[in-house]
Amino acid sequence: MISIFRLLLLTGLCLAGGTVSDSFKECSQFFYMHTVPTGIRGDNLKRICQRYGDKLRYATLYDSSRRLALYSAYTFKKSDGQRRMDTPWMYEPQVADSENSSHNTEWYCPYTVVESQAVLEDYVDAVDYKRSPLNPDQHQVDNQDKAATYTLTNVVPQITDLLEGPWAIYIDTVRRRLNNFCHGAAYVVTGVTVSGVTIRRGREDRMAIPKHLWSTYCCPRFDRNSPYDVRYMFPTYAAYALNEIVGHSVTEVPLKALETFLKNQTGMDKSVNIFFKDCLTENTHTNSK
């Protein structure tokens, strides 16, 4: 018997959920110390509190002019890294109309949605690229948290060889690292830099292609007896990768090195700061009070 999820895929129905507003106030719990990253610019920015099953799951900063997610922020959940394969891709109606109250409803995508965000058809002829989730389901454990990552406002076009090679290895490396050595909440922000290059559909520029992907985590409470080869990567560490066919290896760096790198990229300014006070360890934060 065909599952309801596969039926929705075949019929082209959209499941929608999320809240779009001028701030992340409703979902600030997904940012370390409830503090949003600064210095990341864009046009017609949409701040999406991603919702699934009437529960907030993570946050996304979306540039609807470029039809590109600039970053997603989420809390890491210890997991076995398994993917959820039977979830249909979702769209976000409130990116097109912030007054739309649709949450987890089934409907056909109207023109306003197609104009405001990337849709599945945009990837059909983009043979070098695949959909890459900024909040990957491998970093979640609950089935609904995993399902919530399958929204097109959470994915970006990524070179296939990067997505299935070095980036996949990095995502799993971080998963195992946080599973083993992070003893409390871990906050992750994964985003992109912009290139000025787009994916076209017909004669229309449909979707911006990221120049780089980057990611960083903050784990204030960690195992201080961990081996040295991972100890220096706590409480925070980061990585970036060039999103091109040639030269797309992942480079892991300290948080400040990532921020310095981002400050020199298009769409960023000199105030780039991802975590409150650069992710204080729990002891540092306690002693500073």
Brief characterization of the structure:
This protein is of the alpha+beta class and 289 residues long. Helices cover 22% and strands 33% of the residues.
What's the topology here?
Elements: H1 4-11, E1 14-16, E2 19-21, E3 38-40, E4 45-52, E5 55-63, E6 68-75, H2 93-96, E7 105-107, H3 111-116, E8 129-133, H4 143-148, E9 155-159, H5 160-164, H6 166-181, E10 187-201, E11 204-218, H7 228-231, E12 236-242, E13 250-253, H8 255-263, E14 268-273, H9 282-287
Antiparallel strand pairs: 1-7, 2-4, 3-14, 4-5, 5-6, 6-10, 8-9, 10-11, 11-12, 12-13
**Head-to-tail CA distance between termini:** 59 Å
CATH class: Alpha Beta
Fold-level CATH name: Extracellular Endonuclease, Chain A
Q: Report helical residue fraction.
A: 10-25%
Name the CATH superfamily assignment.
Answer: Extracellular Endonuclease, subunit A
Signal peptide: 1-16
GO molecular function, one term: hydrolase activity
Protein name: Si:dkey-85k7.11
Domain ENPP1-3/EXOG-like endonuclease/phosphodiesterase: 55-273
What does this structure look like?
The protein is of the alpha+beta class and 289 residues long. It has a single domain (4-287), classed as Extracellular Endonuclease, subunit A (Extracellular Endonuclease, Chain A, 3-Layer(aba) Sandwich), CATH 3.40.570.10. The protein is 22% helix and 33% strand. The protein has nine helices and 14 strands. The protein has helices at residues 4-11, 93-96, 111-116, 143-148, 160-164, 166-181, 228-231, 255-263, 282-287, and strands at residues 14-16, 19-21, 38-40, 45-52, 55-63, 68-75, 105-107, 129-133, 155-159, 187-201, 204-218, 236-242, 250-253, 268-273. The strands form four sheets. The chain has an eight-stranded antiparallel β-sheet with strand order 2-4-5-6-10-11-12-13. Residues 1-13, 103-107 and 285-289 have low confidence and may be disordered.
